Amino acid sequence: MDADLTLDLIEATVQIDQPVNDQKRMVGTGFLVSVPREGAAPEVVLVTAAHVFERMPQNEVRIGWRVKAANGTWQYSPTRIPIRTDAGPLWTQNPKQDIAVIAVQVPPSYKDKAIPLSWLADERSFDQWHVSPGDEMMTLGYPHGYSANTIGFPILRAGRLASYPVGPVSSFPTFLIDLTAIPGNSGGPVFMTEHTERAPGADAPKATLVSGILTKQVEVNAQRLELGLVTHAVFVRQTIEQLFVARGQAPGVKVGVTSSAAPPPVVVAPKKLSPREAAGAAAVGQTKSKP
């Protein structure tokens, strides 16, 4: 892979929100992945942190599509999608990691904006590209519900890989980056491109891959350590495979962890939210009800 992911991922990243009241809303981040299927057109799934959906109590969320008119002007055009019914969640959740995926119908202009599944790192990618502590990684999201502009494009931020070792993923499913995981960034993609900086003296090829998904800010005794917790993209692949297995289907390529079969799908029971969660807990984010 030698393409620069940055612009493609900006296009594929969307805001997920749900109103709390007339003044506030809960906000998270998600990104679109195109999954190949045997004998059928690719299917688009939305990837986010599972807690983003869990802490939004209503049955529908808004997805912040951005539409470009023929005259070149942009418009923020959110639509609602269901994420649960009275019977329970509609998303597929990883049994061990904070990752959720859900199939979505995207506007016509978004059919080519979902990133290919192949761009997600697999369990060999970090070794193949010699990913090391100090390497720069970037993320996209909506900190405290803010976007880069009124059209709803995500904000790009960067930090250094702060963990060692970062594999194997069976032993180290998450890693740290030196970046403040502000509420609202949860669910955003974490990625490297050929333009990101490597650790000084690193003898490594240029890497272009989605490394993982930002899932948590690190706190000790309610004090933020200015570190973000990232879950390996391998588990995004695994969760996508769960979605297809639950339907009795098979994706066009093997997408999960190759060393083991995909686990059965997880059914997440609806839970009663605490007042703090209902108001927008720190890992999701809350802002005034404007994009």
UniProtKB/TrEMBL annotation:
It holds the Pfam family Trypsin_2. InterPro entries: Peptidase_S1_PA (IPR009003), Peptidase_S1_PA_chymotrypsin (IPR043504). This is Peptidase S1 and S6 chymotrypsin/Hap. Transmembrane segments: none annotated. Gene3D superfamilies: Trypsin-like serine proteases. Coiled coil: none annotated. Residues 272-291 are annotated as: Disordered. It comes from Asticcacaulis excentricus (strain ATCC 15261 / DSM 4724 / KCTC 12464 / NCIMB 9791 / VKM B-1370 / CB 48). It comes from the Bacteria.
